[in-house]
Write a structure and sequence with these properties.
Blueprint (H helix, E strand, L loop, with lengths): L1 E2 L5 E2 L19 E6 L3 E3 L4 E8 L7 E7 L12 E3 L3 E4 L5 E8 L11 E10 L5 E2 L4 E7 L7 E5 L17 E5 L16
Parallel strand pairs: 3-11, 4-12
Antiparallel strand pairs: 1-2, 3-5, 5-9, 6-8, 6-10, 7-9, 10-12, 13-14
Amino acid sequence: TDTGANGVEDTSSGQQSKTLTIQDNDPKPTVTLEFGTNSIGEAASSTSITARLSVASSFEIQVNVKLDSPEGTATNINDYKLSATTITIPALSTSASITLTAVEDDVFEGSTDETVIITITSVLNEFATATSPVSVTVKIDDNEAAPTVTLSFGTGSATTTTVVEGQITDVTARLSGEAFVPITVTMSVDS
């Protein structure tokens, strides 16, 4: 027998249970994006794109990302592959990653290396919020040499020709490969 604080005698026996509710007063975690490296080589190099929480959550957090275009100069499929557009951070973890892989091409991009910009578009549940930085930029370093230029006259492949005064002939410049940037050819005429 036990006498409680209000003077009432408790004569119950056996197990008793009470429900206690604990209200969580911790702020929601914030999620940011980061990369493993900000520059990758074109020849199938890769980097991780990581969504990172400020603190672990008891819940799985799904972060949707998108590729920002036209701000980024690289084009999906031709220049890179992204392993997923949703990054799932498991419960009690603080980060998860997807992979960005460069795709080899034969196009000379010049000094304007291509860029890929990846941005958080949404966090799929109310258990976290996105905060800066919500986007990352990764540069893809071109590995092609500048194409060579071959000049020819007329419709053939002649590299020398004689033009009679008053006649016109075409001069054609051909590149040895594709170029993403304009190629300027400067010519001079020997008399």
